[in-house]
Design goal:
Radius of gyration: 22 Å
Structural class: mainly alpha
Strand content: under 5%
Shape: globular
Number of helices: 11
Number of domains: 1
CATH class: Mainly Alpha
Helix content: 40-55%
Largest sheet: none
CATH topology: Vanadium-containing Chloroperoxidase, domain 1
């Protein structure tokens, strides 16, 4: 079975914002108006100059979170992230491949039926799962929402680089009987993009909290990331070593960001977003 290169919807979860809502872009409601008597002409409505004295100063709170994440991606991409995130490929001996494939067969036999709901729900988008876990919504915590998508984009950039570098075939290309229930993403298997994204989201979100709550949420966020990543194995889309190295890669990305901060060369826009997200709690 070859990968489906025409399907771009499940290459990452960064393109889908519909499941969790749009935190920015102005009004979140739609209103009917009258063509022959528009509200702007209603007696008693404000007359005179506009409220704002200037056109500049667009609030970060009103940005669409995904658009804001793209803005911050260029800042991260300008750093030496390739060197900082270097990983080694697992030893793909024949015995190791057979062992990994057999493990995926067992997951398909015994766990796939129960996991199908989550597999489909998390195929293209899972930021909403993390928002639900911490009890947040895009409207109430827009900067937290934007931070999650920023982490998602950082992880996507780095994961795609290493996927291209190693070029590992998907499990179902080795064993077609795995027959994943969703379309194969049109890119290599190693490391797992979902795992890299989910674990980096967990790390970046955990830093917003402190004390006992912070400890518990950090554990819960990591547990959710593990579940999301494992669902990809149950679906037959990833080997266990794809997931393991996604976890490692997320740690390297997070450590790279921290190293820049410690070297007094922080990602200014990213740090500003983290500060704004902390202020929401």
């Amino acid at each position: 079975m070859t990968s489906n290169t025409s399907n771009t919807s499940n290459t990452s979860n960064t393109s889908n914002t519909s499941n969790a809502g749009n935190a920015g872009g102005g009004s979140r409601f739609a209103f009917a108006d009258r063509a022959d008597y528009p509200f702007v002409d209603h007696p008693g409505a404000h007359e005179g100059p506009p409220y704002a004295a200037t056109l500049n100063g667009y609030s970060s709170r009103n940005w669409n979170p995904l658009a804001y994440a793209w803005l911050l991606l260029s800042e991260f991409a300008s750093t030496d992230w390739v060197t900082a995130t270097a990983i080694s490929a697992p030893a793909d001996t024949q015995a190791k491949i057979e062992e990994e494939i057999e493990a995926l067969k067992n997951l398909a036999r015994f766990e796939r039926a129960d996991a199908l709901g989550e597999i489909f729900a998390q195929k293209d988008e899972f930021v909403s799962y993390f928002m639900g876990l911490i009890g947040a919504a895009p409207e109430t915590h827009p900067h937290t929402y934007a931070l999650m998508y920023t982490a998602c984009l950082y992880a996507t950039l780095v994961a795609m680089h290493w996927k291209n570098h190693f070029g590992r075939k998907r499990p179902s290309e080795i064993e077609p009987m795995l027959m994943p229930p969703v379309s194969l993403p049109g890119h290599p298997s190693f490391p797992s993009g979902h795992a890299t994204q989910a674990f980096l989201i967990a790390r970046c979100t955990a830093q917003l909290f402190s004390g006992n709550r912070g400890t518990k949420l950090s554990d819960d966020l990591t547990a959710l990331a593990c579940r999301i990543a494992r669902n990809r194995e149950i679906a037959g889309l990833h080997y266990g070593t794809d997931t393991e190295h996604g976890f490692i890669l997320a740690g390297k990305i997070f450590d790279h960001i921290k190293a820049l901060r410690d070297a007094n060369t922080p990602l200014a826009q990213f740090e500003g977003l983290v500060a704004a997200a902390k202020a929401e709690w």
